[in-house]
User: What shape does this take?
Amino acid sequence: MTKPRKLVMTISLNALEHLGINLYSNIPAVLSEVVANAWDADAKKVSVTIDKTAETIVIEDDGTGMDRDGVIDRFLTVGYKRRDELGGTTALGRKPMGRKGIGKLSIFSIAQVAEVYTALNGDRTAFRMDREVIRKAIAGQGQVAYEPDELTDWPGDLTKGTRIVLSRISKSLSGMTVEGLRRRVARRFSIIGPKYDFVVRVNGAAIGPEDRAYHNALQYIWTYGDQSELVKLCKNLDRAAEARLSRIAEELGRHQISLSGWIGTVFKPDQLKDEDGDNLNRLAVFMRGKMAQEDMLDDFGQKEIYADYIIGELHCEQLDVDDQGDIATSSRQSLKEDDPRFEALRKIILSELRHIAGKWSDWRRTDGAKVAATVPAVSDWLSNLKGDTKKKAERWIGRLNTIRSNDDGDKKELLKASILAFESYRRKEELDRLEEIKDESVEHILDIFRSIDDLELSYYGQIVKLRIGVIKTLQEKLKANDKELVLRDYIYDHLWLLDPAWERTKGSEHAETLVNKFLENNTSKLKGKAKTARIDIGYRTTGGKHVIVELKRASVEVPVDELVAQIRVYRDGARKILEKTTYKNWPIEIICLLGKPPPEWKDASGTGPSGVIATLKTVDARIVFYDELLTNAQSAYADYLEAHMKVDKLWGIFEAIDDFTPPNP
Assistant: This one.
């Protein structure tokens, strides 16, 4: 009896590191290599089982398997050229995906140990390979023959094909879901499913084209070849698919390449950031049913907005023709950019992207205007416009749909601002016609002026609504007990919180800068607790008055004496500076913005509230409590809005826009 040949792998450490351990960075990419091997073995069924508890991954197929010679000559020979040895097609007529004979090494990029069980015509072979043992055997010796450990136990339920058990997984399984793995494997193949007699299951669930999970996000699609099955999966298309193959047939023929697949755009860019963390904003290239390059889009450097919405899958079989050389890089994750076939494909795709960019902008503008018009109040407003104003308004509102934004709230605000802008434009047109109005048309003139008053009313109504939002934000900051610096900056930018009449006086910036500089440079004059308690000062000049605001965190309780000491330094220094300006006669008011009253406030037998108020008045200061500030501001603006809604002719339109829920694909 002939002694069985030894199982031997010959490999260099460099090959192991670059073509194995570092070949891929994620589990789906590795499993895709194993699935591709199953396809090449004419498997009809492949099962992938993830066991997070045992931390193992098992991949099993019902393909032809291998006898002992096949294991040695094909599996354990790194760089085995499958197509040269076994021909360009399989027994089932499939075109093999494998070419370089290195995909098998990818398993070591996610697992330390791989157990392989394979059978052909009753000849069974089982062995274990350990990445670290291989490393040690090779280290320092250049290239050696590595002998895997042969296994004697054979799984009783395995009768044909190949089973690979991966253990000591180096990539975390805890954050990976079965659904996510199915999605990511589905996106790497176009030949999975009953149509191709190739069923792949993950933990018992079969993968199908629908598992790619981006079809319903597509708004527009351009197709190359028969993509009817894919288009059926796209339930939310706003327009019929545009067939492009016949339009580029001449260019394809000139370069002797074929093209099939599709390019699509989604409703919102954030739909291309999926729950698995993958960026789907890409154009993937497939050869022989398997992804060969994850993205070509980035190569084109498209800066236009439409590029943020692009996703696509393109198939070009001429990129993988047996007698024209291998176009794939050694990593198997991209293509050689200097290959003439790739350059020709790139030129054609760039031309298509330019066409798509123009179509996308036109369609988004038109469809955006249609969506806005589905809000009855907006539709009525548009119908009341006339002539060029109406045309311009429709075009502009449509353009809002081409603005780079994922936030529907931002687009709603832009729509409201656009309506106000066109209302203002309409008033300007009416004013321009005043010269044509005869003297006796007084009533018409008054109507024009009344319409201008109505527009001002609408503008202020939106300002008040935004201010109520500011008040709510400040309430949240106080509830979170934000630091003085945060409160200072917020109130500094919204001084009307202290008094709706206060606004920054134009032309006073120089005086304000001088006062601020003094306040920053005189911290050293404060002593003890007054110095450590001081965080910062907010200073602004308002109409007819200089205002200095001293803020304290909402939870801080400051004695009156400390407040007075701080305030006196600020007030006296500001006076000296202002003596040299045209604003010297304006009074100075200092606001102490507090969350809690000073301790003396509660002293019923002594100072009490009136005493605190009187003491602070001696240094031109007064207390405003956060609760009082917010209650008064909110009450004032709420009362205003209640009356405003009854007279603002645009209010109903703006409310309808706020309440509108855009279609959610």
